[in-house]
Amino acid sequence: MISLQQQLRRQWLITILLIMLPLLLLADFGVRQLVTDTVMSRLQHDADSLIAALSQNENGEWQLDDSHLGTLYQRVYSGHYFAIRDEHGTDLRSRSLWDKQAPIITLTIGEQQKWQQLGIQGDQLAEQWLNWAQGIRVQNHDFTVWVAEDITPLKSELNRYRLAAIALLAIALVTLMLIQRYQLSRAFARLEPLKQQLRELRFGERDDLNAASGLYPQEVQPLAEEIDRLLSLLQQRVGRSRNALGNLAHEMKRPLQQLQLLAEQLDASHQIEQRDALSRLSRLVERELKRARIVGMSSPGRQLKLAEDLPPLLQILGQLYPQARIHAAYDQDAVLPQDHDDLLELLGNLLDNACKYAGGEIQLSIEAYQHQDDQAGWQIQVRDQGPGIEPNQCKHLLQRGIRLDEHSAQGDGLGLAIVSDIVDSYHGSLELAANRPHGLSVVVTLPTATGR
User: pTM for this one?
Assistant: First the structure.
């Protein structure tokens, strides 16, 4: 999963590239066009100088006044070349061409042409010519003037400019990314109070996010307020439901006593059936009262801290069942990631079964596990020395809705349907097996990563 900061950095980088790359291409085109126009302007100026230096001698032959020519046209392969031709065979060329031929081109008066082509190759030369030609008339005589310049050095300079521009662009991007990283870090640092309070909420160290304090940025303030509202609503609803259930179970005890008195007035055959129904109803009432005492106050979102939450549960069970002695083995620093109330109810039901139907020595162990397939979780095991149950009843007892205590006052099974529902909700497993030398062993496995 990509974090919000990574998404912002990626989108920002794409945006910058989409803006800067066209600008870089535009700048490159502008520089190339500027260089071309500058060279072309120089060639036209040199052509004007050549036309001005063109004259006839006393023999009627056309010649150039060397005083109007620069030294660049005198040096062999200097990269600056010219040629003046007419249809009568006049061919005036710069010494810089040496033994190379100029392009043969004929233009009408006033016609101009510019182009690029490969120039002199070989002799450690690899020239690229920028050419300019024009048709002119001097003393009623038509000529074609050709001027060229080797732009290879300019292209080399342009390539160096491109590399420098790319390097500067890369440095600018890195600098901007560092600045953006710093700014994002500062911006997201304002979410640290929310992160810390969510962590405290997760571990049961607080009941809400305290959104009214105004500690959060404006963008997440509505979210924090909505979370606080939902937490408060959930806590109130769960609390009311459990209190109502406990109150209902408590209030049912008096009518049950009255029904038992009335049952004694029935004939013997009906008394047995009536008392059996009342007995089952009484056990249900007692179970709900114990659940309310075990779980206590509801606090949604909390996790179970064994060192803090398990001793009060053991103390309550010790008061309810003085004949039982529970020996608990667990890591004092362990924090189970599942819901606090769910695990208290699960442990309470398992230990209540063991205390009620076995008594004596009861072993409770809670430990983390790590499988080879990188699956991690927690294993809860409760072992007693009671009468146990028949092996063929184990599978039957774990079926949804089946409870042995609904059919008999003896044997384990009280609350196992509830335990099974809790385990299923966390995609865990519940196993019943015989303890050695006698009794029952209940093993609950809860994976750390759950779909709850």
Answer: 0.48
